[in-house]
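Morning!

This is the sequence you dropped in the shared folder:
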Amino acid sequence: MEWMKIIGDSIQYIEDHLSEELSVDDIARHISVSPFYYQKGFSMLCGFTVSEYIRNRRLALAGNELLCT
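The structure's back. C-alpha cells below.
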C-alpha cells in the first residue's frame, strides 16, 4: 500500500465534500482502507487527526468567506 497516495486521495475526497457531513468511516470506505488504519496513517503522516484537518479546513473557509463579504 502506498500511504502517500492513500492520504492524498482521502484529502482530495475531503476537499470535494467539505461542505457535507463527513465521517472517518465514509472517507476510509471511499479509499478502501479500514477506518482504524486510515486514522493511524493519516495522523502519522500529517501530524494531526482527520477530524482536526476537517475542522481547520472548514474554519479557514469560513474565515475567508468573512473576509470576502
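Headline: The chain has a mean pLDDT of 94.

More detail when I'm at my desk.
O.
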